[in-house]
Design goal:
The protein is of the alpha/beta class. It is built from 20 helices and 16 strands. The protein has 4 domains: 126 residues, Response regulator (Rossmann fold, 3-Layer(aba) Sandwich), CATH 3.40.50.2300; 166 residues, P-loop containing nucleotide triphosphate hydrolases (Rossmann fold, 3-Layer(aba) Sandwich); 84 residues, Helicase, Ruva Protein, domain 3; 40 residues, no CATH class. The protein has a 5-stranded parallel β-sheet with strand order 2-1-3-6-7, sandwiched between helices. A 5-stranded parallel β-sheet has the order 9-10-13-8-14. The protein is elongated.
């Protein structure tokens, strides 16, 4: 593992000796002799460990310790001193130091203390990741596929993951872009480094720029303290931009600059910072259409569109519907202490025939809802919302399996009218206005209104 250490000591001999101890361990070591120089270094780059002398000239190192921790939360500070005592050790720990190293020290002591700090840092990150993975372990069935199309996609995604280039994940809503991004990170050279997600649709204005790059206190209403951004949190790791098409114009401009030279500034300050981060972006929108509409920068699109992979929809990998459904059923029935739940044969046929416009998310939610609400252990089509209970009353199992679907799919057993209705419904749901939907469909708004009325679309 490559990591960075900052040595803050007014004795150049101490700085040099610590550097010689740590560089063979894979560390990049920067030594400075004053507190202002240390704070400037922290503003310019990210460090995992700081060796801080208890006395820097006539100044107490403990006086600058809180500021170090404020500028880089989570950093491990090791206080070093020639005046070892229980009192100073306790005070250093109270202020947030991770460890304490008395002078004179041996090379082995320096290495051991640094390794201890790095291990603690990694352990915190791994615990956070494990908690995240526990919440997402239902997604493991994503990668057991019977579909040649999806297998080909995974092979391409695996090759893309091994590079360090920017990746653009494209696909319909609900296809699992977040899970795929984590899977790609696990197959990259940054697999043991942070994975940080920015949910772009949840932020707007200054909050979006601040979330990405951080801000200075007082920059905007509510900015009561300095804050680091997601780019800094993801140092050496992967930054996942979920629904990148929703970035504001300012955030797009700053992201473009970061992709060009890996430099950025926090909102409200002029200090240039650098970060070593891999970008994976995802969208379910047509960025080309957003460019035409002036909502997305064309130059940013070119920088993001280095390696693009398109995630197949669930209806295009029908071989996987039943295995995925069984996976979700096992997961949710176990969570609800209802082991042994199954699908009826008619329900299984209905699931395979259904178009699943919401993809994996719709399948997952339908099964979770059925596990919670169904009074019986064998789930039927109405339990998943594939047909209504009223329709089911007058239909046998075979008729249910052959019932008309709610969502038509290309190449299926559907009329042109059914396919047109489904296409129009999807375009309307994905467009900001009816005018935009009409433009995308290449028909005039009056024609769209007429078709909406004809097909009963609200």
């Amino acid at each position: 593992m490559n990591w960075s250490a900052l040595v803050v000591d007014d004795d150049s001999g101490v700085r040099q000796s610590i550097r010689l101890c740590l560089e063979p361990e894979g560390a990049r070591v920067l030594g400075v002799g004053t507190s202002p120089a240390a704070l400037e270094a922290l503003d310019r780059g990210r460090f995992e460990v700081v060796f801080l002398d208890l006395w820097i000239g006539s100044e107490s190192g403990l006086a600058v310790l809180p500021e170090i921790l404020r500028r880089q939360p989570g950093i491990s500070v090791i206080v070093i001193t020639a005046f070892a005592s229980i009192e100073t050790a306790v005070e250093a720990m109270r202020l947030g130091a991770a460890d304490y190293l008395p002078k004179p020290f041996s090379p082995d002591q320096v290495r051991l203390t640094a390794k201890r700090a790095i291990f603690a840092h990694q352990l915190k990150r791994q615990v956070a990741e494990l908690q995240s993975r526990m919440e997402e372990n239902e997604a493991e069935g994503f990668f057991d596929t019977r579909s040649a199309l999806y297998r080909s996609f995974l092979e391409t995604a695996s090759r893309v993951a091994a590079s360090d280039a920017v990746v653009l994940l494209r696909g319909e809503s609900g296809t699992g872009k977040n899970v795929i991004a984590r899977w790609m990170r696990s197959r990259s050279g940054r697999r043991n480094e942070p994975f940080v997600t920015v949910h772009c649709p949840m932020l707007s204005g200054d909050l979006m720029t601040s979330a990405l790059f951080g801000h200075r206190k007082g920059t905007f209403t509510g900015a009561s303290a300095d804050a680091t951004g997601k780019v800094e949190e993801a140092e050496h790791g992967t930054l996942f931009l979920d629904e990148v098409a929703d970035l504001t114009a300012d955030a797009q401009s700053r992201l473009l600059r970061f992709l060009n030279d890996r430099t950025y500034e926090r909102l409200g300050e002029s200090k240039e910072r650098k970060a070593d981060v891999r970008i994976i972006a995802a969208t379910n929108r047509s960025l080309e259409e957003d460019i035409k509409g002036g909502r997305f920068r064309e130059d940013l699109f070119f920088r993001l569109n280095v390696l693009t992979v398109v995630i197949p929809s669930l209806r295009d990998r029908r071989e996987d519907i039943l295995p995925l459904a069984q996976h979700y059923l096992a997961f949710f029935s176990s969570r609800q202490a209802r082991r042994g739940m199954t699908f009826s044969e008619a329900c299984a046929r209905s699931m395979v025939a259904y178009a699943w416009p919401g993809n994996l998310r719709e399948l997952r939610n339908a099964i979770e809802r059925a596990v919670i609400l169904s009074p019986v252990d064998t789930l039927e089509s109405p339990d998943l919302g594939l047909i209504s209970n009223e329709e089911a009353k007058n239909m046998g199992a075979e008729a249910i399996a052959k019932a008309p679907l709610k969502n038509a799919a290309l190449g299926g057993n559907f009329s042109l009218e059914e396919v047109e209705r489904e296409h129009i419904a999807r375009v309307i749901s994905q467009s900001p206005s009816l005018e935009a939907a009409a433009k995308r469909l290449r028909i005039d708004p009056t024609t769209l209104q007429r078709k909406r009325k004809r097909y009963g679309l609200t």
